[in-house]
Structure formats: structure tokens, C-alpha cells
Amino acid sequence: MLTIGELASYAGVTVRAVRHYHAKGLLPEPERDRSGYRRYDAGAVVELIKIRTLAGAGVPLARVRELLQADEQEFAVVVTDIDQRLRAEIRERQRHREGIARLASGDGLALPLDVVGFLDRLRALGVDERIVRVERDGWILLAAHSPERVPEWMARKREQIADPQLINFYLTLGQALDHTEDDPQLVELADELAAYIIQLADEQGEYYVDDADIEPSFAKLMDTLAFDTAPPARRLIHLLKKRGWTGWTKLERVDPTRDAAGTRQED
Length: 267
Fold this sequence. Notes:
This protein is an all-alpha fold. It folds into two domains: 4-101, Multidrug-efflux Transporter Regulator, Chain: A, Domain 2, CATH 1.10.1660; 107-253, no CATH class. The protein is 65% helix and 1% strand. It contains 13 helices and two strands; from the N terminus they run αααααααααααααββ. It has helices at residues 4-11, 15-23, 42-56, 61-69, 72-103, 113-124, 129-145, 150-160, 164-176, 185-204, 206-209, 216-229, 232-241, and strands spanning 245-246, 252-253. A two-stranded antiparallel sheet has the order 1-2. α1 (4-11) packs across α3 (42-56). The N and C termini lie far apart (105 Å).
């Protein structure tokens, strides 16, 4: 007869593990001898080795008892079920690993892979990193707010950045960030941007300038984020409004002679 320590040693587990299996009802506790000690026979060693093997293979302890009591056919069914569960867990852990890998790149935080690819494309085209950051933060908001629409918006963005004129638009915005809000060169940049937008609207239609269909309140939130990240952008948009366009996230044609309340402005 064996002590609990000897049983654990033969089965290759710890005494604590034996007691844990007792508590879970997987390994019956023998009666105590006259000295008050529990004594185990060889059968207990065999059962403990089975428990250890099943647990080591990833079988939840809640199902170990089921397997120990199953016949050959039932055993095969249960093992198949457990294997499928483990495969699902492996796939889920792989997705977690992919997510962690994306975090290492910085842009991958809270962004789908196709958006990360879009940001990398902007960098490759020479777009200022500050503009890329504004785009990134905006996409984080968009992806959280309307994840189901991200593929639609990204398809449109990929089409647009194939247009050299749009890239010039991005490059001009980047230049604006090198100026203070009172720099007179912002006026020249506003003229360039307005000319580009008007040309684009005339050639492609106003829908092409902005067809994202983002509700105004959310567009305003995204504009605020952009202005906080790149303060000169606020001044640039103010100048653009005087040239007939308004909005950063959602460009719209406006009457430059009227203020936000609809009052006509004096020249």
C-alpha cells in the first residue's frame, strides 16, 4: 500500500495535484488506516496516470470523469468533440496573436488590416506623417462607429488615391501643417485646395469630392479630432469656407457670403 506521496511520485504528479483530483471527485479517496493515513493501491496509480494524461492533453477536468467512465465508442465521440473545441481555441488564440502582431506596428491598434494597408500606401506616396496620423485616428473612430461600412469606404479610398490629383491634395495639406495659423501662406494653400476641389467637382461631380455619407454630428467630431491634432488645419478650413467649401471630414459646397446662421456677410 502506498502513501499519498508515493502515489504522486509513481504517477508523476504533485501531492497537491492528487488532493485537487480528490476535491474534483476524479480520484476516489481511500479509507484511512489505523494510524490515520490514507493508503493507495496500484489501481489508484493507474487511475491517476489516466487523469494526468487526459489533463495534460488539454481535456477539461470537468470532462475527465466522463472519459474515464466511457466505453470505447463513447470515448471516441467525446475525444472528437474535445478535439474540435481545442481546434476552435487554437484558431481564436491565433487571431489574438495576429492582433498582438498588428499592435507592434502602431497603426494596427483598433484598425482593420485593409485600413492599415491604406495608411502604409499614403506613406509610400510621400504623404506627411502628421496627415497620416490624422487619417489613422479618424479611421479608428469610423471603424468603431460603423464597422460594417469600413469595406465600402476603403474601396472608395483605394480608388481615390490612385488619382494623382488627390495625392497632391494630401501633399498640400501636409505643407499647411508647417505654417502657423496666422501665416499668410495659408491663404495661398487655401487657393490651391479650393481650385483643386472645384476642378474635381466639375470633372467628376460633387459626389466624388465626398460620398462617405457620414452624419454631420459625427463628421464634426472627426473634424475636431483633426483640428486638435493639426491646429493649422482649422485656419485652412476657415479660409476654404470663404472660397465656397467647408468641412474637413465631409467637404460640402457652401455660400461663402453667408455665415453659419444664414446671414449674408459683407465683403
